[in-house]
Design a protein that fits this description.
Helix content: 10-25%
Largest sheet: 12 strands, mixed
Number of helices: 3
Radius of gyration: 22 Å
Structural class: mainly beta
Order of helices and strands: HEEEEEEEEEEEEEEHEH
Distance between the termini: 37 Å
Number of strands: 15
Oligomer: single chain
Length: 301
């Protein structure tokens, strides 16, 4: 999600420029009040056999360019209602707590992250926090396709999904992308997401869900230029509605405000109790890959 603050900084700069261009004699006080620090959580847990992590930090000042200070020494546990494990802090990464790969998510279970022995607001009194999410099941990807697009000067590959969407459940999805095993959508702003209301229970035949931009509308080349022998891997995640709402709110609050003097940015929603910020997300995932061939690359012509 520091990226969000940097985008908000850009919005504030735009406001200051607008004020400087407006001729008046009255001085305008642009002082921002500093609130108490809050706990910020960035954590995830899936159905995969892998290490998962939970990062704890304190919120920074609104206009600060410094990273959030990590929170060490917290007591952190994860429970499925029957079994509870303690998350140990990594010795070489302060504020990062490990969910070991031996603890794997099971469909249908609700997982609760509990955090205590934390004084995030620096008032000398420890606080406790909780966040819960349910692990939903997910259908396999049938296949992945690629289609070339040159719309409004932006040259890109459209990543196309082929699958079947279950009818019996309401589902929400997020899509990330790998190129030759490298995650090329690491930022929250680069995730694409959707709900199933337009294709619930139907075959998904080549729906555009992600993109690989090779050249932007200004003619600038990006770091990603497909060549024969490359592999593109699509990851589809079945996320909870509250995380879908969180992604929507992040996109809304970090976009350009019109007019410039609309209200101040609101806090995006969180699934943390006790006014904690951030999100603990639980999701299932499937992946599928496609190899780049001469036939695919001929679409550029």
């Amino acid at each position: 999600m520091s990226k969000i603050l940097s985008k908000l900084n850009i919005s504030i700069i735009a406001v200051l420029i607008a004020l400087s261009l407006y001729s008046c004699t009255e001085e305008i006080d642009m002082t921002f009040k500093s609130g108490k620090p809050q706990l910020v959580v960035d954590g995830f847990f899936t159905d995969q056999v892998q290490d998962h992590f939970v990062s704890l930090s304190k919120s920074a000042e609104f206009l600060s360019n410094e990273p959030n200070p990590p929170i060490s020494g917290a007591h952190v546990t994860l429970s499925d209602g029957q079994e509870e494990i303690i998350l140990n802090e990594l010795p070489d990464i302060a504020g990062t707590y490990l969910i070991p790969k031996s603890y794997r998510g099971i469909y249908g279970k609700t997982y609760t992250l509990s955090i205590s022995a934390v004084d995030a607001d620096d008032d000398g009194i420890d606080e406790s926090y909780e966040a819960s999410n349910t692990l939903n099941s997910i259908r396999d990807i049938s296949s992945v396709g690629l289609g070339w697009s040159n719309t409004r000067g932006q040259k890109q590959w459209q990543v196309l999904l082929f699958s079947r969407e279950p009818e019996e459940t309401q589902d929400f999805y997020a899509f990330s992308l790998f190129l030759n095993s490298e995650l090329i959508t690491p930022r929250i702003s680069e995730l694409e997401y959707a709900e199933d209301k337009f294709f619930n229970g139907n075959e998904i035949n080549g729906v555009w869900v992600q993109s690989i931009v090779e050249e932007d509308p200004q003619g600038e080349a990006t770091d990603y230029f497909l060549k024969e022998g490359d592999w593109v891997k699509l990851e589809m995640q079945n996320i909870n509605k509250d995380y879908y709402d969180f992604l929507n709110a992040v996109r809304e609050e970090t976009g350009l405000k019109v007019p410039l003097f609309s209200g101040p940015p609101a806090n995006v929603p969180s699934n943390l109790s006790n006014n904690g910020r951030g999100f603990f997300r639980v999701y299932s995932l499937v992946q599928d890959s496609i190899e780049i061939t001469k036939e695919i690359l001929e679409q550029r012509k």
